[in-house]
Specification:
The complex is a heterodimer of chains A (about 575) and B (about 600). Chain A is of the alpha/beta class and about 575 residues long. Chain A is built from 20 helices and ten strands. In chain A, the strands form two sheets. Chain A has a six-stranded mixed sheet with strand order 6-7-8-3-9-10, with helices on both faces. The longest helix of chain B is centred in the middle third of the chain and has 53 residues. In chain B, about 65% of the residues lie in helices and about 10% in strands. Classes of the chains: A alpha/beta (about 575), B alpha/beta (about 600).
Chain lengths: ~575, ~600
């Protein structure tokens, strides 16, 4: 990945500020103004007190107090104003970026999600964007205000005497040299720490999602050990950041003091040679003192800015990922959907498959006529699930094409394609929502009747016995259901979508024999008018289909009815038959 | 309303009593976190005070240089000037080094506290029972351990130490003013009244807002995690737009709450500045009038005003810290809630050691229901002799999985007891229990890492040979070798491609490697194809020799290797005999078996 400069990276934030950008800039201006008031206040105070000494009258006193109060109130109002101004831009940028990230993640293909642990995505969405909000409304504003203040201060110093100003500038040289290295090293450490925080989030996520496995094997302690070692790595990185910071601070504190010390010598020389008055030297020191805090805060603000840079980098890394499964430029429509599904010399390999391996799907040719149902059979790992995932473009074919009613699916809009085809996955994902919303996921506008019908076909009448019937919240946030119950709801979901093509990945694996028989019976009715591709492991599921396709070595090596294939294909017999030739396992 | 543990944690507007209770709870947690680093905190505190002191010396040296050294230098006596400059530089070096030390040392303390809390949270959530995890959702646990911990990290970064030093500084300044001019001090003290009320207002409103903010942030995280976990279904059913609009609503809620929270501080901070200015004005007014009447010297007035100013100087830092503290304590409230949760399946205090386990299981008068109180097992008695292989058959909801969960002690019975070799499972240490009883379920979760790592979960430190042997025994060896890097293939990178059946094979190999006395298989072969299943069964026949096994499977082929079949219905055993006898009879099993055989052809 190309490493971009600090400003170029941070500039990526500008579009998210949108209309709030002027507001943010106004906030910066107000911040500068507040700083100037803070600069002015001590001077005014001194004049007032001195004036009171020379002219002790009640009128002067009241005037002074009024002026003083006015200045104090103004500063408070300016601070209030600055904070109020930057509030909207900061939170807006954060929210917009977070929405954009979520949207992008939904668009990115499944292959992206296979590779990116969700903890890394989460840490980007939560921690990184929170950091950016704070940086925009606080770090950025203060950085500019402080730099301006330092610049103004320097001008004042040069006005006092060029030599004193030059001393300060020269003595700051080591800081700039050091700062250059620091920026590089701290930038790396900052990036590493954010990545490690993402790894940590991933470990947390896995430890929670895999809690049952960890418990069943009593490996909680081992997981905690791994987590601890990751957390310790993060700690080491944080300590490295602190070490870099402490080195920088050494310079930041020391150099101004060094220049003060030198100025003391120079000042005395200048006074004795008559080039400078005592008052001039005093005001020089007063100004340097006032500048001390903004100079020191530069160290902290620099680190903050580098953290922000790393956060932006991590963000754009995802945002800039090309969506390699996208809709075609010119979208075609299927005018009269029949539901013919055709695989034409389909090839597919995962991008990181070893080069010496054949394609996982290695030239599949298969035609499923409208209304026909085909069972897809093959041994574990033969690519059956992959083949089904290709039909809705969860992955894209690497060669050949898949067509629906003669139209290449790459030329269909996602909306069109995914409403033509409904999928029932093997691992039934339920979302934290009502039964109704879960079942009608693919067709939210379906009628009450459709819902009940789908539930009936999937033998999911158990939902009516739930505390609030179909309105009961299920999924993680709600009632927990058994594997068989979840699978039936996933099936109901696919059925309720009323697609012209139904793709089911081993849809009955978790059902008991009785329920399976009932589901099959009901499904047959649905399948009469629907094209279907059914991944099957057992003969009973195969019986649902009109024809069977055997996937072997990445190709369809046999196609026909169950009994035809039983006769003609040895591999088919091997895959589907429970009768072992040597030893009868069944009693 | 109860606020114990994580109950009602989404409630932000708590009554006084509840609010007090959870504040105390999170405060106790904070104290326990600080306890181990107490000594170092004092050192750091000391260093802070010294460096503050040194900073005060600096200006004094300059004053000395201007008042004394300068005239001397003009008189050609350079020594005072050199002393002043040298002294100044020395002080500067000391200040800078001390600050650098302070940063490193402070970071170490902070990181140690964080590491401690991270580990405590992780271990505790691991320890909590399955029942807790089913109720609390993964997204929340993740939110607690990520964004809430982040709030605490922010608090630590803001530097509590500095805050204490600043406070000390304020106290010293106040005391100095009291000695210098008691009347001005009274003016300063009067300003504490508005300060108190402003702070009280801030604390109260901020506490509520920060609580809301934690809740909103957790909701956002829960939804995010759910979408990313279910991304395939999201895409296949085109719910992207709907999700997006829901997510942006949650996001907007969170933004509004965040905005309100920051706004509070945006009012609080200028109010403090304003109070400071007013206080100074009054000191000027009263002091000035005394100067006019000749009761007060102008020098004393100057000093009094400067002290007042100094008093309000560090107040912004204190306020920033206090703000972070409010944010962090809202997070601590939630975290301490999770830490307060106790495992419903507790570890015994004096565990009975298991020795020479034969594997006999006993259910004695067991009654069980989940938290919804609907009875699953009413008065259940069962004896499984050591070494027997049991097949559990029955429709969904008959209680088969519950039985499995009781044996593996994911839950404890409500009444009665489950025992292994006549030792109540409640008296066995978790370590012992897990070594002897292992359950494999149908959801075969793979952790990031290599295939070998995932199998080795069954037996940490297993050699590659042992791992491969286990894989071979369950028929997983071939497909693993075909993966890009064989056993070293990273499942995280290629996890999407290991099929459900392959995942089950890997988790089978895991169980094989674990070598337990009692093995429970809950639908562990549901996604396997027939050849794989056949291999697994051959493996099982070797594996199960001399072990107790409970097999739950819808596919009755598994029954083949069972010594005994139990048919369950509504939490009761309705048939119990050898497979041969049951098949020959005319009971439920016989019918099931017939139906199943017919489904095979």
């Amino acid at each position: 990945m190309q490493e971009k400069g600090l400003l170029a990276t941070l500039a990526r934030l500008i579009p998210y500020a949108g209309k709030t950008l002027p507001r943010l800039m106004l906030g910066v201006l107000v911040g500068i103004a507040a700083h100037m008031f803070a600069l002015a206040l001590p001077q005014v105070l001194r004049d007032l007190v001195n004036g009171l000494g020379e002219n002790p009258s009640v009128d002067f006193l009241i005037g002074s107090v009024a002026l003083f109060l006015f200045l104090g109130a103004s500063e408070a109002v300016l601070v209030l104003l600055r904070r109020w101004l930057v509030l909207e831009p900061g939170t807006q940028v954060e929210a917009r970026m977070r929405n954009h990230l979520y949207e992008k993640l939904e668009t990115l293909p499944v292959s992206f999600h296979d590779q990116w642990p969700s903890g890394q995505l989460l840490s980007r969405s939560v921690q990184d964007l929170g950091l950016l909000r704070r940086w925009i409304s606080f770090g950025f504003v203060l950085l500019i205000a402080n730099v301006v203040m330092i610049a103004v201060g320097l001008v004042i110093l040069f006005n006092t005497h060029w030599m004193l100003g030059t001393i300060l500038l020269i003595s700051s040289l080591p800081f700039w040299l050091r700062g250059f290295n620091y920026q590089r090293e701290y930038g790396l450490a900052s990036r590493q720490s954010q990545d490690q925080a993402g790894d940590l989030a991933t470990s947390v996520e896995e430890s929670v999602h895999g809690i049952r496995v960890l418990k069943a094997f009593g490996r909680g302690e081992q997981a905690a050990g791994l987590f601890a070692s990751e957390a310790k790595e993060l700690r080491m990185t944080e300590l490295r950041k602190a070490r870099l910071n402490s080195n920088l601070w050494l310079f930041i504190i020391l150099l101004p003091e060094l220049s003060i010390g030198l100025s003391l010598l120079a000042g005395v020389y200048l006074i004795s040679s008559g080039e400078l008055t005592l008052g001039g030297l005093v005001s020089y020191f007063a100004t340097v003192m006032v500048l001390r805090w903004p100079i020191e805060s530069l160290g902290f603000l620099l680190a903050f800015t580098l953290d922000a840079k790393a956060a932006v980098q991590r963000f754009v890394e995802v945002i800039d990922k090309p969506v390699d499964i996208a809709e075609a430029a010119s979208i075609r429509e299927i005018e009269n959907p029949q539901g013919k599904l055709e695989f034409k010399n389909v090839h597919f390999r995962y991008p990181d498959a070893p080069t010496n391996q054949r394609d996982l799907i290695d030239g599949v040719d298969l035609v499923i006529q409208p209304g026909q149902s085909v069972a897809l059979i093959g041994i574990t790992g033969s690519g059956k699930s992959t083949l089904t995932a290709l039909t809705t473009r969860l992955y894209d074919v690497t060669d050949g094409s898949i067509e629906i009613d003669g139209v290449d699916i790459k030329n269909l809009s996602f909306g069109d394609l995914r409403s033509q085809i409904a999928m029932a996955f093997e691992d039934a994902t339920l979302f934290s929502a009502s039964v109704r919303d879960n079942v009608l996921l693919g067709r939210p506008d379906a009628s009450e009747e459709d819902l009940h019908q789908a539930l009936e076909i999937a033998q999911a009448a158990f939902v009516y016995d739930l505390p609030e019937g179909v309105e009961t919240t299920i999924g993680e946030e709600g009632m927990s259901l058994s594997g068989g119950q979840r699978q039936r709801l996933a099936l109901a979901r696919a059925v309720a979508a009323k697609p012209s093509i139904l793709v089911m990945d081993d849809p009955l694996s978790a059902l008991d024999v009785d329920t399976e028989a009932l589901v099959e019976q009901a499904l047959r009715q649905v399948l009469k008018g629907t094209t279907a591709l059914i991944v099957a492991h057992r003969p009973s599921t195969v019986m649902l289909a009109d024809k069977v396709a055997l996937l072997q070595d990445g190709k369809i090596t046999a196609f026909g009815t169950h009994s035809e294939l039983l006769k003609s294909s040895e591999h088919y017999r091997y895959v589907i038959s429970s009768f072992d030739s040597e030893k009868q396992v069944i009693i | 309303m109860s606020t114990f543990g994580t109950l009602n944690e989404d409630q932000s507007d708590l009554n006084k009593e509840d609010s007090k209770r959870i504040r105390e709870r999170s405060f106790r947690l904070l104290i326990s976190l600080i306890e181990p680093v107490k000594k170092r905190l004092f050192v750091s505190f000391g260093a802070g005070i010294i460096s503050q002191g040194l900073r005060v010396i600096g200006p004094a040296i300059i004053a000395y240089a201007l008042d004394t050294a300068l005239p001397a230098a003009v008189e050609d006596d350079q020594i005072p000037l050199l002393v002043a400059v040298g002294g100044y530089l020395l002080v500067a070096i000391a200040t800078a080094s001390l600050t650098a030390f302070f940063i490193r040392f402070g970071a170490r303390i902070n990181q140690d506290v964080l590491l401690d809390l991270r580990q405590r949270m992780f271990r505790h959530t691991q320890k909590l029972s399955v029942e807790f995890h089913e109720r609390y959702t993964s997204g929340r646990v993740i939110a607690r351990q990520t964004s809430d911990l982040d709030s605490i990290r922010e608090l630590l970064d803001t530097g509590g130490n500095e805050m204490i030093v600043s406070l000390m500084f304020m106290i010293f300044t106040g005391a100095a003013l009291l000695i210098l001019d008691p009347q001005s001090f009274l003016v300063l003290a009067a300003s504490w009244i508005p300060l108190y009320f402003i702070t009280r207002w801030f604390v109260r409103s901020a506490r509520l807002q920060y609580r809301k903010s934690r809740v909103a942030s957790a909701k956002l995280i829960v939804y995010f995690v759910e979408t990313m976990t279910g991304i395939r279904a999201v895409k296949a059913f085109r719910t992207e737009k709907r999700n997006q609009s829901h997510y942006s609503e949650l996001n907007e809620d969170y933004r509004k709450i965040t905005k309100r929270t920051i706004q509070l501080f945006g009012i609080f901070d200028p109010s403090l500045i304003f109070t400071g200015s007013v206080a100074m004005s009054f000191v000027l007014l009263f002091g000035g009038s005394r100067v006019i009447e000749g009761e007060l010297g102008i020098g004393v007035l100057t000093a009094a005003i400067l002290y007042t100013r100094q008093f309000f100087g560090p107040i912004e830092r204190v306020a920033i810290f206090y703000n972070s503290y409010q944010a962090a304590s809202a997070a601590l409230e939630k975290i301490s809630g999770v830490l307060e949760e106790q495992p419903t399946v507790p570890e015994p205090e004096n565990p009975t050691e298991l020795k020479n386990i034969s594997g006999e299981l006993n259910f004695k008068d067991v009654e069980f229901h989940y938290s919804n109180k609907i009875p699953i097992l009413p008065k259940f008695n069962l004896n499984i002799p050591a070494g027997q292989t049991i097949a559990l058959v029955g429709t969904t909801g008959a209680g088969k999985s519950t039985l499995a969960k009781l044996i593996s002690r994911f839950y404890d019975p409500v009444e009665g007891s489950v025992s292994l070799d006549n030792v109540d499972l409640r008296e066995v240490s978790a370590e012992d229990l897990r070594r002897h009883i292992v359950m494999v379920t149908q959801e075969a979760y793979l952790f990031s890492g290599s295939v070998a790592d995932n199998i080795a979960l069954g037996k940490p430190g297993a050699s590659r040979e042992e791992i491969a042997a286990a894989a071979q025994a369950v028929g997983a060896h071939e497909f693993i070798l075909a993966l890009p890097d064989g056993y070293d293939t990273d499942v995280n990178k290629r996890g999407g491609r290991v099929s459900a059946g392959q995942r089950q094979l890997i988790s089978f190999a895991r169980a094989f490697l674990a070598d337990p006395s009692v093995l429970i298989l809950d639908e562990a072969t549901s996604s396997l194809d027939i050849p794989s299943e056949r291999l697994v069964q051959q493996g099982l026949q070797t594996l199960l020799k001399g072990r107790t096994a409970i097999i739950i499977a819808h596919r009755l082929s598994t029954v083949a290797i069972a010594d005994r079949v139990l048919v369950m219905e509504q939490g009761r055993i309705i048939e119990d005999d050898s497979p041969g006898v049951l098949i020959a009879g005319d009971g439920k099993f016989s019918k099931l078996h017939k139906a199943w055989r017919e489904s095979l052809v």
